[in-house]
Write a structure and sequence with these properties.
This protein folds into three domains: about 5-60; about 60-140, Beta Barrel (Thrombin, subunit H), CATH 2.40.10.10; about 145-245, Thrombin, subunit H (Beta Barrel), CATH 2.40.10.10. Helix content is about 20%, strand content about 40%. It has three helices and 13 strands, in the order H-H-E-E-E-E-E-E-E-E-E-E-E-E-E-H. The protein has a six-stranded antiparallel beta barrel with strand order 1-2-3-6-5-4. The chain has a six-stranded antiparallel barrel with strand order 8-9-10-13-12-11. The chain is globular. The termini are far apart.
């Protein structure tokens, strides 16, 4: 085979490869648009594509969690985010909402209860809990590998003051309600919590917070509380958000590395 023929075949192969890539990207885009349009008919059509995609990611990963103490004296209801990694499924929520053992903690989705398989992490410092759960077919899990900034450092520059964020939760056992806000700032040195101008109520704690790139940047912890001349007051529109970059995901990948 002559050199010219080989060169032509290589050129043709590169062209076909590029064409295949373009076709694949087009198909992915169409599928994403169909997923959003079919699954979120109720979302405002006035939103931009990025806003609609972020709201969709928030709504389709949101779950409600109910946890009860062994003696039945404590019962809590909170929000959470459905996640996946390495073929397993998890829920991220707040530690302060865990009232009892795994077997007395359930995930509620559209009037169906799903069991807690086991607690993976209960972190008191950053106030989060990760539990392994049964697969939930009516929810779309967030990919821990692809959609969390702790494993993708380049995403940290997408968390900036006045950037829009979205979360979906179950305040006062109602919902799912999807709420929009924007980042106001962070703790000293930006190491622990974010603060967003938005709204939250009891039961919304644990809701996953997404930026406009549909990435999970944190989880709702609480409303801010401050002392004034009139006593302790709740700042109802200042929401404290734990950074997902502070979550230790390594226990979820333990079996993979061993």
């Amino acid at each position: 085979m002559s050199r010219d023929t080989i060169k032509k075949l290589l050129t043709l192969g590169v062209a076909l490869g590029a064409f295949s890539l373009l076709v694949w990207l087009a198909v992915q885009s169409i599928q994403e648009n169909l997923r959003i349009s079919q699954a979120d008919i109720g979302i405002s059509t006035d939103l931009s594509y990025k806003e609609k995609r972020a709201a969709s990611a928030s709504r389709h990963s949101a779950v409600r969690i109910i946890s009860m103490s062994v003696d039945g004296g404590a019962l809590s209801s909170m929000s959470g985010t459905y996640l996946t990694a390495m073929g397993h499924y998890y829920v991220l929520t707040v530690m302060h909402g865990i009232a009892g053992p795994c077997e007395l903690t359930k995930v509620l989705v559209e009037e169906t209860y799903y069991g807690c398989v086991k607690y993976i992490t209960v972190d008191r410092i950053h106030d989060y809990a990760i539990m392994e759960v049964e697969k939930i077919y009516s929810r779309t899990p967030v990919s821990i590998i692809l959609d969390t900034p702790s494993l993708r450092p380049s995403m940290t520059n997408k968390i900036s003051v006045l950037s829009n964020v979205y979360y979906t939760g179950f305040p006062n056992t109602m919902g799912p309600f999807t709420i929009r806000g924007h980042i106001m700032g962070s703790d000293a040195f930006g190491s622990k919590n974010l603060y967003i101008l938005s709204y939250a109520w009891m039961g919304a704690s644990g809701s996953g917070v997404f930026n406009e790139d549909s990435k999970l940047i944190g989880y709702v912890i609480a409303l801010d509380v401050g002392k004034t001349e009139y006593g302790v007051q709740v700042l109802e529109n200042v929401v404290m958000v734990g950074r997902s970059s502070n979550i230790d995901w390594s226990p979820l990948f333990k079996d993979f590395y061993e």
